[in-house]
Design a protein that fits this description.
Elements: E1 6-8, H1 20-26, E2 35-37, H2 45-50, H3 56-64, H4 75-86, E3 97-100, E4 103-107, H5 117-133, E5 141-146, H6 150-159, E6 165-172, H7 178-185, E7 192-197, H8 201-213, H9 215-221, E8 223-225, H10 231-237, H11 239-251, E9 259-264, H12 269-280, E10 284-291, H13 296-303, E11 305-307, H14 327-334, H15 339-352, E12 354-356, H16 359-368, E13 370-373, H17 376-390, H18 396-407, E14 415-419, H19 427-430, H20 472-479
Parallel strand pairs: 4-14, 5-6, 5-8, 6-7, 9-10, 9-14, 10-13
Antiparallel strand pairs: 1-2, 3-4, 11-12
Length: 503
Amino acid sequence: MPSTTYSSTRGSPGQKSISFSQVVMSGLAHDRGLFVPDVIPKVSLDEVESWRSMSYADMSTELLSKYIGPDEIPKADLNLIISTACGNFRSPDVTPVVKVGEHYVLELFHGPTFAFKDVALQMLGGFFEYFLKKGMNGGRLAVLGATSGDTGSAAIAGLRGKSGVDCVILYPKGRVSSIQERQMTTILDSNIHCVAVEGTFDDCQDIVKASFGDAAFRDEVKLGAVNSINWARVLAQQTYYFWTYLRLTDDDVKFGNAVNFSVPTGNFGDILAGYYAKRMGLPVGDLVVATNENDILHRFFTHGEYHRRSINKSISPSMDICVSSNFERYLYHLLDDDSSNLKNLMTAFESTGKLTLEGRTLAKAKADFKSARCDTAETLNVIRSYNKDHGYMLCPHSAVGVSALHQTNLANKHSVALATAHDGKFPAACSQAVPDLPPPPPPPPPSSPCSRPCRRAARRARTTPRPCRTSSAAASRSARGQRGGRRPPGSGRPPWSSSWASF
């Protein structure tokens, strides 16, 4: 089957029917639009069922090969890229699913930098290296990225030491956690460069977009993107929606029934992956956009008002964003793939900071997504109550997603809240709710391809959460060495200790 081709959301003739390799290497379309698939592949329920007994890497290979044919990457090579990426995770499940209270939590923090972005960026680094070794770009790529906290460290972990790749990461000074900053600035590989910018994440993102808009500069330095504007990230993130669906239907949910997902949302890339998974044929029910005080997306899905405001500094800094980079992809589909209409709307928004939809179009958007807003007080309350009632620690971002499940009355066995980062990355915030914090997690294992056998029974969704120091029941589970939970104190050097060898 030939590979899927891609076109820009803004419809320039020279940015249509672009190959996957070109999309990966260029990131942003030359007309400042974002690449979207010309055709969204379909999967049948029978195909999904056939993936049930596979490892995460093998299931992901089957899924991504729907988009990436052997004309771009032979299947054996694709599997090696994905298996190598999965080998950098601490859990054999890569993204374990646990039941906490009445609903499920998808733990996306078992990668090298303890955040969901590791899943996609470990794969993206492999794609970059693969295509460069094939001679693309003359074997050189200068990756420029902006981060609100987690993208930068995950990009660095995925690209450090990669042959032919230089990586420059911009982050807003004083607006990321101290651990996030150290995960970026203490990496000494010669191809990694971090720059603190006076301003907000949106200021960093504006620099990135302006750089891609300068054709002479872009072509001279062979510029590439690592932010979620790069389609490969959205593609890779679809894998854990399929994985999670299979784990819930191992035991608790009837196969074929819909599963709901609540996603802490800033740049809209993570939940957009769920939208594409649903359009592929995965039985996804409600997709809930969970925002903090920086709630431009909640305001849009409630009132149709995508209006830019100043950023409020919060305890969930990775969501402190007032313009969501990936939202343009969804708008393109919402407008029935009309690039002309989309371009006019985005041009007006870039000029006025306001985009308003109403009537049938807004009703369609509300059918695609639910939304909820969670402020700092509520975020801390969720962290506190889940620690007390379930012995489970949530990071501030993950707590926003859990709050949204409750606000939309979806906290049940058919629903999953995405835990997008480990609570250990945000001790200053979490300690406001739980003064006696659990120990930080152990370092990741040495990098190796994920070749571990994963039997179906061993990969079923767990019904008990990972251990937490404030829960005696959880402590007992920790003593028994339950797989997937946080290891007991002393089992490994924290990655933000004096030695960063694990990174």
